[in-house]
Amino acid sequence: MTEKNSIHSNPPYGMIAILFIGAFVAILNETLLNVALPSIMTEFEVDATAVQWLTTGYMLINGILIPASAFFIQRFTNRGLFLTAMTLFTIGTILAAVSPTFGVLLVGRMIQASGSAVMMPLLMNVMLIAFPVEKRGTAMGTFGLVMIVAPAIGPTLSGWVVEHYSWRTLFEIVVPIAILSLVIGIFKLKNLTPQRDIKLDVFSIILSSFGFGGLLYGFSTASDHGWSSPFVYGTIIIGVVSLVTLILRQMQMEEPMLEFRIFKFPMFALSSAISIVLAMAMFSGMILIPIYVQTVRGFTPMEAGLLMLPGALVMGFMSPITGRLFDKYGAKTLGIIGLSITIITTFYFSKLDMNISYTSLMILFAIRSLGMSMVMMPIMTNGLNQLPAKDYPHGTAMNNTLQQVSGAIGSALLITVMNNRTETRAEELANKAMATMDPAMSQQALAEMQAQMMNEAMLNGINFSLLVSTFIAGLALILAFFIQRVGTDGQINNKKKASSSKAVVAVEK
Fold it and tell me: Matching SUPFAM superfamilies, A to Z (predicted)?
């Protein structure tokens, strides 16, 4: 029995659990701080532009380091990589918790991100190595708990903490978990992934940083500065030029930092396309619905966070189940059903008004989460299954990078659509009000009318943006009909071809 088969027959569940905990707390931190930003602004006396760097900077570091994770995973042992990443993450968390100034907090946040960036690709790669194709769906379904649930729980947890305690508690909660994961990892982690003696191309790292970093920063700041800002379109242009140069360079290298030739595998390319489109639609719900709940309806951040909690729990409950269903039925069936649920619920969200109850919103969001839980991991796993084992690090790095970039693009696009629609509707309402307004109206009544018009205009903008999101999800559904199941040998299962072959054999006999 080969070492590979031995690993397959006895997957290292204990080691995966350690990686699982480390990745969970690392990914949780990506959204944990969003609700706490106003409190941090007050304490350190900084403006919204400065405080936003706590989330934008975290995302940028991830966008720069995740593409390089393919090199790190191939060059270094999974044990050494995990311990280094977890040490950096722990140091950053402690520094953020005790930070006396905003600058120290920002540095701590960046160090956190440098550790967390490699966690997701590392865990995914270990699971691909540890489990055979026929059991990989169940394993990756469990992994979905990290990928989907951790970011969803972040706002709820931070909303509750900030309402009752200091924002520093958000980091203080994570510190003991991170230290425990690190200590257990020192004693229990073993090396599983194969190493290759490859050299890092520094120019590729620079191109990757400017390419993915430029795109992420440009799109993520478009909603604040506007698309006409030279700072926005300038960074996007730099990102596109750098990314094209990076791709051309990687295609000419024998040992590329990030292997773009993996897109020649049709199911991986298709799964990536669906994941990109779905990430754009998914992030819309995580951004637009809280805006509606807090700005239009006036609910507290805590109530907005709790609204999404049942959806996160549904995703957590369904992820392992979806994994087992994937092993049995494949990604196509799950993808079509899940995307249909996602499209229908997103369409209903595009018809929000001022009277829909909090409970109805919570139930609708939970059903939408159910649909999404059936799509992301099965489709991604089906694509990764077609890759040769040596390309797993590149596949996991590519998937995580594309999700970061597409999420930023989707958010920027839909926020822009919302803002433009809100402005147009506000002008329409203002013109209509001017024609019928009583000149003797008091200042208070005028202010109330203006506030009501702005609320109505924003509601219209949110609904239109969610309608656009529905059509984006519809594109993912169309692509899902082209999914084919990948077999244990990495080949696409073609039942018609197999049936024809049996018929020919029968005729020959």
Answer: MFS general substrate transporter
pLDDT-derived band of residue 437, with 50, 70 and 90 as boundaries?
low
Collapsing DSSP to helix, strand or coil, 492 comes out as: strand
* Whether residues 7 and 46 fall in one domain: yes
The alpha-helical segments, DSSP class H, found in 189-229 are 202-225
If one counts the domains in the chain, the total is 3
Show the DSSP H helices in 330-442 as ranges: 331-349, 358-373, 376-385, 392-436
Sign of CA dihedral 447, 448, 453, 458: positive
Residue 272 has pLDDT above 80, yes or no: yes
* Rounded Cα gap, residues 217 and 225, in angstroms: 11
Burial 60-70 (b: 16+ CB within 10 A, else e): bbbbbbbbbbb
Among 341, 412, 402, 348, smallest CA distance to 372 is for 341
**What's the number of CA atoms in the CB half-sphere (13 Å) around residue 345?**
25
Q: Are residues 188 and 300 in the same domain?
A: no
- Whether 472 and 449 share a structural domain: yes
Neighbours of 5 (CB within 10 A): 10
Q: How many residues does the chain have?
A: 509
Tell me the β-bridge partners of 486.
Answer: 492
| Residue 280, pLDDT above cutoff 50 | yes
Write the CATH number for 114: 1.20.1250.20
Answer whether 486's CB lies under 8 Å from 493's CB: yes
Q: Which domain covers residue 244, as residue numbers?
A: 201-256
- Distances in Å between the alpha carbon of 25 and those of 89, 277, 291, 344, 389? 9, 26, 26, 32, 28
Tens of pLDDT along 364-417? 989 998 898 888 888 888 898 888 888 888 888 888 888 878 877 887 788 888
**In which residue are the tokens 């994570």 written?**
174
Q: In 3D, which of 67, 474, 63, 123 has the Cα closest to residue 280?
A: 474
Cα(218)–Cα(408) distance, integer angstroms: 9
Taking each helix axis from N to C end, the angle separating 119-130 and 78-98, rounded to the nearest 10 degrees, works out to 150
Residue 228: C-alpha distances to residues 223, 280, 372 (Å):
11, 22, 34
Say if CB 256 and CB 204 are below 8 A apart: yes
Inter-residue contact 340 to 451 (CB < 8 Å)? no
Asked if residue 338 lies in contact with residue 332, where contact means CB atoms within 8 angstroms, the answer is no
DSSP notation for 11-31: --HHHHHHHHHHHHHHHHHHH
